[in-house]
Write a structure and sequence with these properties.
With 473 residues, the chain is mainly alpha-helical. Helix content is 48%, strand content 9%. It has a three-stranded antiparallel beta sheet. The protein has a two-stranded parallel sheet with strand order 1-2. It has a two-stranded antiparallel sheet with strand order 5-6.
């Protein structure tokens, strides 16, 4: 059975790059009938916050990427927070020490930094050797550490050899001998380094595939070496392309919203965000663009993950959101619009007049790109617009007749409203364009908006008559 994981660090909000990684892992796990695991990598003690962990979980659930195992749902391979697995990491680090594949280093951080600077000044890469690092381990230094209650860091003895990775996305990647030197696996405070902890966790959690961003590619050689040192089979790695902004530079805050939470706040549907993210580095075999999560699962394959960087196009995301909103059922469209309608109404009022509100959303559906636009689009239905417009006497005369025609309608529907328009204009020299455009401005205070017939139908007799009268002088 395939097992994939998403392992975020709770040091901030869920970035779209992280969300895409989660999505690809989720899609493949579901496509293959496997398991999707959520693991919280909270070993960055200074930056990790419970608030961010809660935010990550909420954002992933909002996207519909539900996991089979994780910190909140449990599972047979827990705990699923790295901060709760420290004893496990220490045990495996000790195993490497016992086998001569890792060693203790009694050096202070500033001494390691000085060593790094020395190597660089000599024109050498900052690759440490066991001989360099163990030079700090004197009997005096051990005694000093003991007296201060300090613990040594643990470093892995990196074999000097070439490593080859057969990457699902990149193909064959060769890490030449000497790509990296010895590296820390456990800090002096007992906290594991990322490359060590994730190898231990992925092995113990039986992860079969690791799909992640290609910014992690340089970490992979260290992880392969660790798998080899333990005698474990490596999972299949796939490093997906970076996400770039429209200017082809690394996606960042300067490009606008970059977190899932921000897109949620701006009124994007989770279906649209997921659809958009799926196409950042993957393509449907038939070139399909608008898809449900189920359709993505059905069509997903690792072979179609792209090697080239993906461009984050906010305009395309907006278009996708509009398409997904238009495709919602009437009931669902009202449900997702409700938070934005509460500016002018109440839950109770919406429920009591559900049919009217459904028709309201249907009237503006084609004009919505972000749901935050809804309050503006519906405002004139609830608030009488303030507008100044000079009407000719001919138009005023027609509108006087229109008031009479509207007053006499018994069955209020589109057909009877159109008939009232025709009857009012009969015998008049007023052009249809002048009649309808001026009427739109009188009723809405705007030159464009939903179909005029929908506006009139939804406003109802009383509001129509009162708003026209205001402009008759």
């Amino acid at each position: 059975m395939v097992r994939l994981r998403f392992a975020p660090s709770p040091t901030g909000y869920l970035h779209v790059g992280g969300a895409r990684t989660a999505l690809f892992n989720f899609l493949y796990a579901k496509k293959m009938g496997g398991k999707f695991v959520l693991r919280i990598e909270d070993t960055d003690v200074e930056r990790s916050e419970k608030e961010f962990e809660e935010g990550l979980i909420k954002a992933l659930k909002w996207l519909g990427l539900n996991w089979d195992e994780g910190p909140d749902v449990g599972g047979e391979f827990g705990p699923y927070r790295q901060s709760e697995r420290l004893d496990i990491y220490r045990k495996y680090a000790q195993k490497l020490i016992d086998e001569g594949k890792a060693y203790e280093v009694y050096a202070y951080p500033e001494e390691i930094e000085s060593l790094r600077e020395k190597l660089l000044s000599e024109g050498k890469p900052p690759h440490y050797t066991r001989e360099m690092l163990e030079s700090f381990t004197t009997p005096e230094r051990k005694k000093e550490y003991e007296e201060k209650g300090l613990k040594p860091a643990i470093y892995f003895s990196m074999p000097r050899k070439e490593y080859v990775l057969n990457d699902i996305v990149k193909g064959e990647v060769v890490f030449k001998e000497g790509t990296v030197g010895d590296f820390a696996i456990i800090r002096s405070n007992g906290i594991p380094i990322y490359n060590f902890a994730c190898v231990i966790d992925d092995y113990l959690m039986k992860i079969t595939h690791v799909i992640r961003g290609d910014d992690h590619l340089s970490n992979t050689v260290k992880q392969i070496a660790l798998y080899e040192a333990f005698g474990w089979e490596t999972p299949q790695f796939g490093h997906v392309s970076m996400i770039l902004g429209p200017d082809a530079k690394k996606l960042s805050k300067r490009h606008g919203a970059t977190s899932v939470e921000e897109f949620k706040e701006r009124g994007y549907l989770p279906e649209a965000v997921v659809n958009f993210l799926a196409l950042l580095g993957w393509s449907h075999p038939e070139g399909k663009e608008i898809m449900s999560l189920e359709e993505m699962i059905d069509a997903f394959s690792l072979e179609r993950l792209g090697k080239n960087p993906a461009i984050f196009d906010p305009k395309k995301l907006k278009w996708m959101n509009a398409e997904h909103f238009r495709n919602l059922s009437d009931e669902k469209a009202l449900e997702v619009s409700k938070p934005y309608l509460l500016k002018y109404s109440t839950e109770k009022d919406i429920e009591n007049n559900k049919e009217w509100f459904i028709n309201l959303i249907k009237a503006i559906k084609d004009r919505v790109e972000e749901l935050t636009e809804i309050p503006y689009l519906v405002e004139f239905f609830f608030v009488e617009p303030e507008c100044k417009i000079e009407l000719s006497q001919e138009v005023k005369d027609v509108y006087k007749k229109l008031i009479i025609e509207i007053s006499n309608i018994d069955d209020w529907n589109e057909k009877t409203i159109y008939q009232a328009f025709k009857n009012a204009m009969k015998g008049s020299k007023v052009k249809g364009k002048d009649f309808y455009m001026n009427l739109r401005i009188v009723l809405t205070g705007r030159e464009e908006g939903p179909e005029l017939i929908d506006v009139v139908y939804l406003l109802g007799k009383e509001k129509i008559i009162n708003r026209i009268k205001k402009h008759l002088g």
